Amino acid sequence: xxxxxxxxxxxxxxxxxIGACAAVARPVAAATGALGRxxxxxxxxxxxxxxxxxxxxxxxxxxxxxxxxLADALGVKLAxxxxxxxxxxxxxxxNMVWRGHYLGYGPADVLLHVxxxxxxxxGSPQVSIFAPYYRDRVVIARRLDRLPHLExxxxxxxxxxxxxxxxxxxWLMLGADGGAYRQQLTAxxxxxxxxxxxxxxxxxxxxxxxxxxxxxxxxxDAGFAITPLPSPRAPRDGWAVGLAVxxxxxxxxxxxxxxxxxxxxxxxxKRMFERANVEWRAA
Length: 283
Description:
The protein has 283 residues and is α/β, with parallel strands linked by helices. It has helices at residues 8-15, 18-31, 34-41, 62-74, 89-98, 118-122, 168-175, 192-200, 211-218, 250-266, 268-275; strands spanning 43-49, 77-83, 110-115, 127-136, 138-143, 161-164, 185-189, 206-210, 224-228, 239-246. It contains 11 helices and 10 strands. The strands form 2 sheets. It has a 5-stranded mixed beta sheet, with helices on both faces. The protein is elongated.
């Protein structure tokens, strides 16, 4: 209910004129859409993950820039809602998109960095997932002076490899070739960025992680090579990430999708990734 606006019930109670009620009910109904609520409020609440470099770390990153651009496209202010990831994506969608967290925050108007994945869509009827804006993948980086070639993981030999233990790259490396590399993995790193930084310092011969994490540290450095992880279990084409809103927010989804498309075609989206030293891969 919008402050200062008569509802249909108010009309019937106080005015008693059906014609007058119909006249004021029409604009109230138009303003109850998700896009209308955002516009009336004057701000877009955008959910972004905490501690996900290079997309968000300490208030900065690619997703922060994207969130600001989306708010600008709607002509409203940005209200960031950073949050810590839960145990699975379904929990994140529940907490940040369609219901809200039991601790009292959320939901946001839109959540960023959601996998555009058919099983996730089918299993989440309360939300709409759309507007893919980047395709990530699992890669491995190596020092060329220690590993000039790496067509198979067997070529790692017994050289140390940095990887975040609680990550897709960590899971893939731990199980690769029947666990052949378990003893040489240093898996205490928080994320792929820290793993890449260990490689940069010379503490290991290779580091595995997401392309976005590895590239933001090492891309453009001639002393290192970054290639897809040579594992049959790694998703060959990676995966796209996009936006998510409540299922009944179709008008907001349509406007946000248009904004993402405009950012991509104008080159602004690519420049956001370039500023983070990440190659933008269209989804």
